[in-house]
Amino acid sequence: MSSLVIGIPTIANQALEIMKRVINENEKTQKITDQAAGPLPLASAMSDFFELASGIEQKEGPQPESEAISELAHYALDLLDRLASQLWHLDIHDQRDNMARLFASLAVWFARQNAMLENLQATADSFAILVNGEQDSGELANLSRLIDEVLESASDEIKTDEDRSDPWRPWRVLNLNSGVAATRALDTQLMQSIFEHMEHRLPYDLPGFFADGKRQMESQDVPQEVNNLISQYAEKWPFNSSH
Predict the structure, then answer these.
(1) Which has the least CB within 10 A, 89, 98, 176, 225?
(2) In which domain of life is the source organism classified (predicted)?
């Protein structure tokens, strides 16, 4: 799997290709009959957004304040949610990985614009898809770092993580996949950094995470320093502890 490109021209082209697929399919099937909420209005809204985002990226004119860029991020990720919904409604099932790359790339782009990110469910699911489908250690390390950027930009409400009843909540999914990606990359320096972040962000899940990681590492041919680091954290966060 190729690297994510965090730039508006590439992200816009990815969105355009998926949007074309939706428009063409709906023209054939007419499954989406609400003209106001159909593919063409969505395509127009996305085109307007990417034109605005391109200006921001190229620093044309006054740059938006933090609150404005955060609102734009919410709006843009909502547009992608609508695109994903139309794919589902039209029974288009071969765009999952492309949508995952689109969500992940745009979330990172907004993180780099200092946006505060709120609606991260699809972004979290998308990074999980990308991590699970990646085998290259360098790409896994890159994904771990990109997820960390998104986590840093999550809203305070998400970061507080007060309601832990949903195991699929974005904060948990993103943190765990950042840790999984770093571990599978076999990069001990990155692992150390990400694990330290996880200790602050997701302490309640660490006993299970490190116990599972230790079991998997022991059954694989991995560098001894990787095994040692996982074992160190597994001892620090013993399973069934009060953490």
Answers:
(1) 225
(2) Bacteria
